[in-house]
């Protein structure tokens, strides 16, 4: 059912929004905080677009993230607390969250039931997820190299 596919993506976007907000709260690095908050805002906009599509189709849109997303955010908090709010650990968790988002968007696109107008929105958001993932991975590599240079 199309609304359930879209609602799963709403949950994914809400998970991303909350995950990036958690990462922004946990980092000491001002540049990362700004990036994380920007990514959270992008996720919120994506969720709203998807919710609007579900409503337009006569469905009831999801309004929160998933249980798995909540557990992931809890893991980010636990891991960052244990790692003394280590930026590499936070970035690793953000990348892991983006891996989940990539898979869910890819599955939705491969589903084959998306009407052309919906597919365009989902593809655009998927492209954003890919850019987010690549940016987070590059930052993780940069911060990892910097940390190793200090060790």
Explain what the structure shows.
It is built from five helices and no strands. The relative contact order is 0.17. Helix 1 runs antiparallel to helix 2 (30-56) and helix 1 (2-26) runs antiparallel to helix 4 (87-110). The termini are far apart. With 151 residues, the protein is an all-alpha fold. The model has no long low-confidence stretch (mean pLDDT 87).
Provide a compact summary of the structure:
This protein has helices at 2-26, 30-56, 67-82, 87-110, 116-150. The protein is mainly α and 151 residues long. The longest helix has 35 residues, at 116-150.
Helix content: over 70%
* Averaged pLDDT: 87
Order of helices and strands: HHHHH
Question: Class by helix and strand content?
Answer: mainly alpha
Gap from first CA to last CA: 52 Å
Beta-strand segment tally: 0
Poorly predicted runs: none
Strand content: under 5%
Give the overall shape, derived from the CA principal axes. elongated
Main sheet overview: none
- Helix segment count? 5
What Rg do the Cα atoms give? 16 Å
Keywords:
84% helix; 5 helices; 151 residues
List the helices and strands and how they pair.
Blueprint: H1 2-26, H2 30-56, H3 67-82, H4 87-110, H5 116-150
Helix pairs in contact: 1-2, 1-3, 1-4, 2-5, 3-4, 4-5
């Amino acid at each position: 059912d199309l609304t359930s596919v879209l609602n799963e993506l709403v949950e994914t976007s809400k998970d991303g929004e909350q995950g990036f907000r958690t990462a922004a709260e946990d980092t000491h690095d001002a540049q990362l905080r700004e990036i994380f908050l920007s990514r959270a805002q992008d996720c919120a906009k994506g969720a709203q677009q998807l919710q609007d599509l579900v409503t337009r189709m006569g469905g009831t849109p999801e309004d929160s993230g998933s249980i798995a997303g909540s557990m992931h955010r809890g893991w980010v908090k636990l891991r960052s607390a244990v790692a003394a709010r280590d930026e590499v650990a936070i970035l690793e968790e953000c990348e892991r969250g983006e891996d989940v988002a990539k898979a869910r968007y890819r599955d939705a696109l491969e589903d084959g039931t998306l009407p052309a107008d919906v597919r365009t929105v989902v593809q655009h958001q998927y492209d954003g997820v890919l850019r987010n993932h690549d940016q987070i991975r590059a930052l993780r590599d940069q911060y990892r190299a910097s940390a190793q240079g200090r060790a």
